[in-house]
Automatic annotation (TrEMBL):
PANTHER family: PROTEIN SXY. Signal peptide: none annotated. This is Competence protein TfoX. It comes from the Bacteria. It comes from Rhizobium anhuiense. Transmembrane segments: none annotated. Residues 16-107 form the TfoX N-terminal domain. Pfam families: TfoX_N.
Length: 126
């Protein structure tokens, strides 16, 4: 998937999660990061949406068969267990996608922001 296609997909997810302009989409290695108030809570890489997880979300995602983000570096597989692929049934349900995105944001540490100050505004029709 090209970097432009990845960015378009990230913008589409951002639009589903929150009103336009409330989530920044930035370059992130070979993908696009989803950032709110300076905190990266997710990213799109190779056509897949990944969200930051806490222990409870990790268990839920694993129960749904999701796997953590991983990549190859220096001839070895690196697994990043802070970010998991979002299950298809979550992506297909706007309210559930919003709820998981909000939880991902709460699981993301921020500098100078209380986690309660970084909640996403949700507009299910927009």
């Amino acid at each position: 998937m090209s970097s432009e296609a990845t960015r378009r997909l990230a913008l589409d997810f951002a639009g589903q999660i929150a009103p336009a302009g409330s989530i920044d989409v930035r370059r992130f290695f070979g993908g696009s990061a989803l950032v709110r108030n300076g905190a990266q809570f997710g990213f799109v890489m190779k056509g897949m949406l990944y969200l930051r997880v806490d222990d409870a979300m990790r268990a839920e995602f694993e129960a749904d068969g999701s796997e953590p983000f991983s990549y190859r570096a220096a001839g070895r597989e690196v697994t990043v267990r802070r970010y998991y692929a979002v299950p298809a049934h979550v992506i297909d349900d706007p309210a559930l996608l919003h709820a998981y995105s909000q939880r991902a944001l709460h699981a993301t540490p921020t500098a100078g922001h209380k986690l309660s100050d970084t909640m996403l505004a949700f507009n299910p029709s927009g």
